[in-house]
Write a structure and sequence with these properties.
- The chain contains 9 helices and 12 strands.
- By secondary structure, it is of the alpha+beta class.
- The strands form 4 sheets. Strands 1-2-6-5 form a 4-stranded mixed sheet.
- Helix 2 runs antiparallel to helix 3.
């Protein structure tokens, strides 16, 4: 996927104000609108202009785009890193229905899942009462928090427009109670922490979508935990019982006799806790000790002479 420089498309500097972006878009739209333009690429150019304007005229999209796109050049190969939007606080406005489908894959990858339904139009009567919009943010937690529960201090960045119409990022910090058993994709709702209501109506809520930081040993899928378990050749051949350390506590696992690399063992109920606890899935990986001493080489040579074993003939008729 190619990186799109929306500032270059509209012909404005990165520090352009909201008014400058609006003027640039209107000027180019008059030139390239397919109904009046004589340019051969008018339709494609107009689509590009609409997409650039949809991002740069929206403070939330613009702030996220500015943070993510630093250092990239137009046309450069681009793939957003996992959870790039973690810590950004978005309102419920999101993208208009069908907007992501109308624009490029680049736009859809960045903004296709942002936010939800559109909220109250501030142009309505001042005495109109409306509950505040819900805000949304993705947060990264440690896997250990799912086992113990915790209270974590979380900082969120929310875009704001200053008096000159430039987008800035304001940071607010919240103390959030993480329930035991939380899993990736779960929503933690903070009542009243969204946008303020209109006409005395209550504020919206803040919806925190949980994701886990990469763990050095475990991979979480729902409530299940996956772990690659290294075993020695004699443990795999003869069978044994091993203690496997978990994010909280440990569990003893029986390695069956004759286990091979790639075999998966399931330990029920030892994944992320909850009303229905997940499972622990162990992928066996047989690891050979190095033949880096005379004694080790002699043992391997003895095995080669005394064991009638050819791994390339295993499974053949």
């Amino acid at each position: 996927m190619e990186f799109k420089d929306y500032y270059q498309i509209l012909g404005v500097p990165r520090e352009a104000t909201a008014d400058e972006i609006k003027k640039a878009f209107r000027k180019l739209a008059r030139k390239y609108h397919p109904d009046v333009s004589k340019e051969v690429d008018a339709e494609a150019r107009m689509k590009e202009l609409n997409e650039a304007n949809a991002v740069l005229s929206d403070p939330e999209k613009r702030a996220a785009y500015d943070q993510l796109g630093r250092g990239y050049q137009p046309g450069q190969e681009f793939r957003p890193p996992p959870d790039w939007d973690a810590g950004f606080e978005f309102s419920g406005r999101g993208s208009a229905p069908g907007e992501a489908a109308d624009f490029s894959d680049f736009f859809a990858e960045l903004f296709g899942r942002m936010g939800g339904a559109r909220g109250f139009d501030p142009g309505q009567r001042a005495h109109f009462q409306a509950r505040g919009e819900d805000h949304h943010a993705k947060v990264l937690l440690d896997l250990e928090d799912a086992f113990t529960g915790a209270t974590r201090q979380i900082s969120l960045r929310a875009p704001q427009t200053d008096a000159q119409g430039r987008v800035t990022l304001a940071t607010r910090t919240l103390n959030v109670k993480i329930p035991q058993g939380v899993h990736a994709g779960q929503i933690i709702r903070l009542a009243g922490q969204g946008a303020p209501g209109m006409g005395g109506a209550p504020a919206g809520d803040l919806m925190l979508e949980v994701r886990f930081n990469p763990h050095p040993r475990f991979r979480a899928h729902g409530r299940d935990l996956h772990l690659t378990l290294p075993v020695a050749p004699w443990e795999a051949a003869l069978g044994t019982v091993l203690a496997v350390d978990l994010p909280q506590g440990s569990v003893k696992v029986r390695i069956p006799e004759g286990a091979q690399s790639g075999r998966q063992l399931r330990v029920r109920g030892k994944g992320i806790p909850g009303p229905q606890a997940g499972d622990l899935l162990l992928d066996i990986q047989v690891v050979l000790p190095p033949a880096d001493t005379a004694r080790a080489r002699a043992l391997y040579e003895t095995m080669a002479q005394e064991l009638a074993f050819d791994p390339r003939r295993q499974g053949r008729a």
